[in-house]
Amino acid sequence: MMHGFTDQEWESYLEGQLTTEEQDRIEAHMLGCWSCWDRYDQMNLTTDQLHEAGAAVRHSLQPSERQLQFAFRHVMQQLRAPAEQIQQRLDRLETVMAKMCGTRTAAQALQHAAKGSPAQSLELVTSDNWEPFLANLTSLAIVMCGETGAHLVRRNGQF
Amino acid sequence: MTLTRITPKLILFGLAIHLSLWLAVSLPAYMGLWPRQNLLGWAIRLMWTGLALAIAARLCLVIAKEHRNAKWLQIAWWAFAVNAGLSVFRMIAESPVSTAIWPAYTSQLRGLWQHLAIVPANLALLIGVIAMCHAYHKVGLGFEIERRDFVLMAIIAAVLSGLMIFREGLTEANSPYEVSRYLQNIGLVCLAIVSAVSVVLHRMAMQMGGGRLALVLRLLTFYSLLRSVLVLVGALRPVGIMASIGLTLSWQVLQWLPALAASYRAEMTFEAGRDLQRLDHQAPNPSAVFAPELLGTPK
After folding, report:
1. Which pLDDT does position A159 carry in this prediction?
2. What pLDDT does B36 receive?
3. Cα–Cα–Cα angle for A124, A76, A115, nearest 5°?
4. Of residues A81, A91, A83, A84, the one with CA closest to residue A156
5. How far is B3 from A128, CA to CA, in rounded Å?
6. Cβ distance of B290 and A105 shorter than 8 Å
7. Closest CB from A96, A105, A147 relative to B209
8. A47-79 burial string, b = 16+ CB within 10 Å, else e?
9. Residue pLDDT, tens place only, B29-88
10. What residue in B sits closest to A150 (Cα-Cα)?
11. pLDDT at position B171
């Protein structure tokens, strides 16, 4: 607080965000207050310098088309990572089961386990509904592969 | 010897030694260079098939334990173990070695004891095959019986029924023990049903698309069907040394099939346990492996 004005009010004045009435009140005070005028002058100068420096940095960092593509790809990869991780895990589970009870049975078991889980279908299996899906698959593996085989399936499916 | 060492390769090696020894002793007898009553050949046959069936029974019990949370499969493997155990008794009962030891043990008495073992053994096999089919069907993974399977099942049933109608070719048709004749017929009915139902196992194996389990089911199917075929061929009374040797060899190979099937199934558990250990990168977790007999030490 300085001479009845808060820091917030000073900042808003510099940014030109005050109402006309508030703006007039501060300017009327500065006409008679040398220290407030001096403070305003310094803050105004600093703000101008910061704006100029920011513009120069933005200009020098203008990304090329290629850089933009790279950044976009990186963001997409980050977004797609969980889905790929799920697919890799499903592939691994299918491989583990296929060795024991055949490729067709393994594929059927995965479909059947997904259908009986909240995911409803294999395409909709995500990390959120993974646990009930894996529990269903383990139950099927207990019959098709025995207890040890089922345990192996479960271990391969755990995150 | 731990059960992990009883691999399919070892079973096949045992079968090879058995057949080699039997042929080495029996061929001279067939060629007249040796007494026709080849007791040594029978002793070799009794010892090695007894060993094969004992291995099969032991492995089946371990596999049943592995299926402790799948009731029907546990019943199936118990039934296969009972079948193998009773088959050992049958081998002893039907062997001329028993007659050599106990002269009062006539061929009629031998037939009676033989069928007293065969009927429960076939019943156990029937229970095993039906329980296994039911377990895999119940899991709901799309195993379906096709029309041609029903045709094949009908053919098998018809052929074995025909064998019963013309049962004069059967060994016990003229037995003084009436119960022997009935037992042989009951045993044949069981065998006919087993053979017919095993077609379903074969279909399931085909629908699996490979894998170790499919191989096990195929071997069990082969075991069931080969038994029927050999009974049928035996009833036709083939003539000639080669036919006789072929038939005797086939009966001996047959007794190794349950052990071979069980060893493939046991190997599946053993490999799963080994993969689990690799995942753990540590000592086996006993609670994770339900058949620690099949785990052994990691390579």
Report:
1. 62
2. 64
3. 5
4. A91
5. 42
6. no
7. A105
8. eeeeeeeeeeeeeeeeeeeeeeeeeeeeeeeee
9. 887 777 766 788 889 999 999 999 999 999 999 999 999 999 999 999 999 999 999 999
10. B272
11. 66
**Rg of chain B over CA atoms, in angstroms?**
20
Residue type (1 letter), B204: M
Rounded Cα–Cα distance for residues B264 and B215 (Å): 8
Query: Helices (H), strands (E): how many in chain A?
Result: 6, 0
| DSSP conformational letter for B37 | S
What was the pLDDT predicted at B144?
Answer: 81
* Type of residue numbered A138: T
ipTM of the complex: 0.81
Backbone torsions φ then ψ of B240, nearest 5 degrees = 105, 150
Which helix (H) or strand (E) segment holds residue B178: the answer is helix B178-208
At position B7, the amino acid (one-letter code) is: T
Say yes or no for a CB contact (<8 Å) between B208 and A105: yes
- Tokens, residue B283: 């000592």
State whether B290 and A100 contact (CB < 8 Å).
no
Give the separation between CA B17 and CA B197, rounded to whole angstroms.
33
Q: Which residue of A has its CA nearest to B62?
A: A146
Query: Is there a contact between B266 and B223 (Cβ–Cβ < 8 Å)?
Result: no
Residue carrying the six token digits 């207050």: A33
- Tell me if B36 sits within 8 A of B91, measured CB to CB: no
Q: What are phi and psi of A2, to 5 degrees?
A: -140, 120
Alpha-carbon distance of B144 to B142, in angstroms, equals 6
Hey, what amino acid is at A56?
Answer: A
CA-CA distance, B63 to B74, in Å (whole number)?
8
| Distance, CA of B156 to chain centre | 18
Q: Tokens for B57? A: 């029974």
Residue B85 dihedral angles phi and psi, to the nearest 5°: -65, -45
For B38, the enclosing helix (H) or strand (E) is none
> What distances in angstroms separate CA A150 from CA B4, B86, B168, B242, one per listed residue?
19, 32, 51, 48
Handedness of CA B230, B234, B235, B239 (dihedral sign): positive
Identify the closest residue of chain A to B215 by CA–CA distance: A101
